[in-house]
Amino acid sequence: MCGITGYIGDNKTTDILIDGLKRLEYRGYDSCGIAVVDAKNELYLRRVSGRVDALDKLVAGDPAKGPKSGVGHTRWATHGAPSEDNAHPHTDCTGRVVVVHNGIIENYLDLKEKLQAGGHKFKSETDTEVIAHLMEEKLKSLHVQEKAVRAEMLEPVFFEAFRRTVAELKGSFALSMVWASCPAMLLAARMHSPLVIGLGKGENFIASDVSAFLKFTKRVVFLNDGEMAAVRKDGVDYYDFKGKKTSKDAVTIQWDSTMAEKGGYKHFMLKEIHEQAESVENTLRGRLLPLGGDILKAETGLTTASMKGFAALQFVACGTAYHACLVGRFLFENFGIPAHADVASEFTDRAKLMHKDTLVVAISQSGETADTLFAVREAKAAGARVLAITNTVGSTLTREADYVLHTHCGPEIGVASTKAFLGQLAAIYLLAGHFAAARGILSSTEARRYAEDLLKVPRLIEETLAGEKEIAKVAEAFAASEHFLFISRHINYPIALEGALKIKEISYVHAEGYAAGEMKHGPIAIIYKGMPLLAVAPTGRALELMAGNVEEAKARGADVVAIVDAASRKTVKANRYIVLPDAPELFTPLLTVIPLQIFAYYVALAKKCDIDKPRNLAKSVTVR
Ligand code: M6R
Questions:
Q1: If 88 and its partner were Cys, which of 73, 222, 503, 561 is the partner (CB 3.0–4.6 Å)?
Q2: CA 344 to chain CA mean position, Å
Q3: Closest C-alpha residue for ligand 1 atom 8
């Protein structure tokens, strides 16, 4: 989500931190900053709203004097819009404790209230800033007299205060901390967010991933969840969260720096496909239990009362985000809540029919898609209220919507949307669960079961991803095909559309997604011998009909790849199978789309297409 760098040693600290941030910009690029402790143990903090190049210029015009340690951060906003005030590093009230953070502190509102009641003054809207103030409290509670002792004698106090701070944090975090009074030690901790230590000679590094420091060292130690590190220039000590020392082995990385940015994957698209369990987990985290309570109120503005009050939902979006809308429509209708879905560019007349009892749900990864923004403005003019589901904090869509639900997927670099789609689906399932529970459609027992099943999805996504090699083989078998059909029904019908869109975008071949029931009304005529047809057929209400559609397609020569689970495989008589783990019927789109993404990726790879930057396309479409 964000990029962290840390350095301690005798080389050019600011240059090393900024160089590392440039290499981590793919993780986030809305604001950035560094904090270093200079030769006089004073803090030098510089932050900008925007890219690392701007920070570089600022620092070059006014360099720090003799810095020996420091941290840097490039941000992808989750709490608080992109701005200089919200940029990391963040400091406490003394301005000497500094933190950079990647992740989400779930209990930050509780902590912030307590700290404010104790007199702490906050300067940003971020969740991260609580960590600096909490640290200040812990240092105070250890009765430290910074000026009375030598800096190195403060190290045990710094560590203990850090340990106590970390113990109070809930959520996901990779942290690195500097205390200007104790500049010979940097501290780091990890829980559900990556953090790696680079081991140099007379210098050491901290980073979100190895690409930040690979040109200085290839010897690294990966922190695990629940581990902390005390990093000095001549050595690193590792601890668990109770403060017990642990030993860790270093490994030598063979990647070059471009491979490292992509986490060793050949393309961002493949990396992002593999980040989907995390996207879902991050989007659900802290927002699901209890369903139907007012848990979304503080963050989104949506209350239980408002969820009860809307007469209908109207989803609007473009491209992949529109396919998420269609899943939303099926899901809400399944609960008996009226819902429609339209592509934003075809919404004009229907927009005029919106009124104050309609909740328009606008979905956009970027939050800047022109057609989606136009649709939102028209719907608002007609009196509707608008909920934005977006991955981009501070985007135009968030500023124009009445309610905002962020997906927490981190930046998506590949033009073909993958992890953002899964984040959008997770947000929709979250929302539908809250609506259904608030309206009494799900009893408390059913709501609990729904939430428990949804929380299992990230693990099922991991299991699905484990099938990558098998899916790649199937894709390679069809790499020369010029036409592809994708079919499904009900809540997986949008997944057939998405499968076809993915392959069109990155392989430039003709592909169509159809509601399977429509095949006999025309499209079946185009089937020829050997034509690849991908049928999404998990266990559920549509299975028998899907099995029939597969038979009909096969009888006309289609080479059918069925996306099934162990049970539905027995019913569907296809030529080839991709078998997914079992999941409750309603949640299957969160899994069935994954083999289609992988399939599209490997077809494009075999065709040697420019997968991350397909021809004629842009990541964000800001004109109509
Ligand atoms: O940023 P948005 O989610 O609003 O973008 C919408 C579409 O342009 C986008 O989903 C597009 O279809 C993707 N390239 C699909 O992979």
A1: 73
A2: 24
A3: 319
Cα(459) to ligand 1 centroid in Å equals: 26
Share of the chain above pLDDT 70, in %: 99
Q: For residues 123-142, give the mean pLDDT.
A: 95
Q: 464-470: which pairs have CB atoms within 8 A and are 24 or more residues apart?
A: 464/580, 464/581, 464/591, 464/594, 464/595, 465/273, 465/274, 465/276, 465/277, 465/594, 465/598, 467/578, 467/579, 467/580, 467/595, 468/598, 470/578
| DSSP H or E stretch at residue 551 | helix 543-555
Average pLDDT, rounded, for the chain: 94
Q: Closest Cα to residue 16, out of 206, 154, 150?
A: 206
Instruction: List alpha helices for 290-443, DSSP H.
Output: 297-300, 304-309, 319-334, 348-351, 370-381, 396-400, 419-438
The pLDDT value given to residue 209: 85
Assign 484 to helix, strand or coil: strand
Q: Is the shortest distance between the CB of 621 and ligand 1 below 6 Å?
A: yes
pLDDT at 1: 67
User: For residue 412, which of 339, 335, 345, 321 has the smallest C-alpha distance?
Assistant: 321
Query: What amino acid positions are annotated as catalytic residues?
Result: 2, 619
- pLDDT, one tens digit per residue, over 472-495 is 999 999 999 999 999 999 999 999
Buried residues in 380-412 as b, exposed as e (16+ CB within 10 A): bebebbbbbbbbbbbbbbbebbbbbbbbbbbbb
Look at residue 609 in the predicted model and tell me its pLDDT.
Answer: 96
| Closest ligand 1 atom, residue 620 Cα | 1
DSSP three-state, residue 432: helix
pLDDT tens readout for residues 50-60: 999 999 999 99
Options 3.40.50.2000, 3.30.360.10, 3.40.50.150, 3.60.20.10; which CATH number does 3-261 get? 3.60.20.10
466-616: CATH homologous superfamily? Glucose-6-phosphate isomerase like protein; domain 1 (3.40.50.10490)
Q: In this predicted model, what pLDDT tens digit does every residue of 381-428 receive, in sequence order?
A: 999 999 999 998 878 899 899 999 999 998 888 999 999 999 999 999
Regarding the beta carbon of 396 and ligand 1, being less than 6 Å apart is answered no
Ligand 1 centroid distance, CA of 319 (Å): 5
Identity at 348, one-letter amino acid code: T
The average pLDDT across 497-506 equals: 98
Task: Annotate 148-199 with DSSP letters as a single string.
Answer: GS-GGGGHHHHHHHHHHHHHT--EEEEEEEEETT-TT-EEEEEEBS--EEEE
Domain residue extents for the chain: 3-261, 265-455, 466-616
Q: Is the CB of 488 under 6 A from ligand 1?
A: no
Burial of 73 (0-12, 13-18, 19+ CB in 10 A): buried
Query: Residue 366 CA: which ligand 1 atom is closest?
Result: 1
Provide the whole-model pTM: 0.83
369 lines ligand 1 (CB under 6 A): yes
